[in-house]
Specification:
422 residues, alpha/beta, TIM Barrel, 2 domains, globular, disordered N terminus, binds calcium ion, carbohydrate metabolism, signal
Length: 422
């Protein structure tokens, strides 16, 4: 800012403070009123329609929710007056702070081997950071390793743990189990086998999980083979959507998270007639925080997607960023570089967390932002990608953890009076 600009702003501030002091009372009243209507506007889409309402009322009422109070009848942490869905504890209104965490990974292809104690530890850290929702895989391979043979023990434990701590879940449904597709990243031979698994999972967790994402990055050739302009994916999506809504009409279907070029994929989903088969659009806009125009890149991806949605009459649907992130390493070098080149330091990563949440939570149509990912990995990706965590492999918090926490508390504190919290 140059000197003349500073003088002008000092001068303006003088005039402004006279104005503010002369009407301090009405200004505050207006601010509260504006904030209340802002809360209602932000959450209007969460008000259930008739079908959803019926489904919510039909759900088991025995949630064993110890935190219910007289003014928060569903115990979701939002006062009845402001609760968009006061009978449904799964809907806690606007809370953009979310993360991706590989809580269910326990295989020979990864280092995570979460036992019960480690899961408790990581979920407590999430609570401390202010995480409101966590995204993780409900792997078909884990759940139905052989046709008709179902295993839910691990998932029951994780879902209960998160639910007890009021952390919401976005469940990813995918990939192909070995008996059902050519490989994990191929669509199933027979869609009905996938739809059957979806039905089983949703009906099991419908009292606890409301949001389901269908596959991850179906526009990437790593996750979906062969790439065919989203034809096969949209076909599967349609069947899954109908089955999911039949099991739980109050659940929401989140489009599979699309890569940086997701705008083309979303255009193709519309082209293939997918418009009525998802409730939330979902993108993964990664950018290199070491580049000055990183945030501009992210916003460009978002705007292109928004434009495509508007063009197709989807003005009312929200956008979720279910992955955004960058590594934070102690000593950047060639070995711990990521796909964008040399990795940021832990401090630079923290600055990116502040930027990301500072900028994106200001966008009205962006409802949730998931930091990818919550905890570092150990030699899984064998690059800087192992260091995307807010906490290190040994669970110690990085500067980015504190940046996330500060931002989450600042934003959610603003809404506190409208959430029935002290
Ligand atoms: Ca409530
Ligand atoms: Ca509620």
């Amino acid at each position: 800012m140059d000197t003349s600009a500073r003088n002008r702003s000092i001068c303006l501030w003088g005039i402004l403070s006279v104005f503010l002091f002369s009407c301090v009372q009405p200004a505050c009243a207006t601010a509260t009123h504006t904030k209340a209507s802002e809360w209602k506007r932000r959450n209007a889409h969460l008000v259930p329609d008739e079908k959803e309402n019926k489904a919510i009322l039909a759900l088991d009422q025995d949630y064993s929710v110890p935190w219910r109070t007289a003014t928060d009848s569903d115990g979701d942490g939002v006062d009845d007056v402001y609760d968009p869905s006061p009978m449904d504890w799964r809907e806690n209104g606007y809370d953009p702070f979310a993360v991706l965490a590989f809580l269910s990974w326990y295989h020979d292809w990864n280092a995570y081997k979460y036992d019960c104690d480690a899961l408790k530890k990581v979920v407590d850290l999430m609570k401390d950071a202010g995480v409101g929702m966590v995204r993780f895989d409900f792997l078909w391979q884990d759940i139905e390793p052989r046709p008709g043979e179902l295993h839910f023990e691990k998932y029951d434990y994780i879902v209960d743990l998160l639910t007890e701590r009021q952390v919401r879940v976005l469940g990813i449904l995918g990939y192909s189990v070995s008996w059902a597709g050519k490989a994990w990243n191929y669509p199933p031979y027979d869609d009905e086998t996938f739809v059957r698994y979806v039905r089983q999972v949703i009906s099991r967790y419908k009292n606890k999980i409301k949001y389901w994402e269908i596959w991850n990055e179906p526009d990437s050739r790593t996750y979906w083979v062969p790439q065919d302009d989203m034809k096969r994916y949209t076909e599967l999506l349609k069947k899954v959507y109908e089955a999911a809504k039949a099991v739980d009409p109050s659940c929401k279907i989140v489009l599979g998270g699309m890569t940086n070029s997701g705008y083309y994929a979303i255009k193709n989903v519309y082209r293939n007639g997918g418009k009525d088969y998802f409730d939330v659009v979902n993108i993964h806009p990664f950018a290199n925080p070491l580049r000055a125009k990183a945030m501009m890149d992210v916003l460009a991806i978002y705007r292109n997607v928004r434009r495509e949605m508007d063009k197709n009459g989807d003005q009312d649907k929200k956008i979720w960023f279910t992955e955004i992130g960058a590594p934070g390493v102690e000593r950047p070098n060639k070995e711990n570089a990521w796909w964008e080149g040399i990795s940021p330091t832990e401090k630079q990563q923290a600055a990116w967390v502040t930027d990301v949440y500072g900028r994106l939570t200001g966008l009205d149509d962006v409802e949730k932002v998931f930091w990818a990912f919550f905890r570092d990995n150990l030699g899984h990706f064998k690059s800087g990608v192992d260091f995307f965590g807010l906490v290190r492999w040994d669970f110690t918090p990085k500067p980015s953890f504190f940046a996330y926490k500060k931002r989450a508390h600042a934003v959610m504190d603003e809404w506190r009076p409208f959430r029935g919290e002290p």
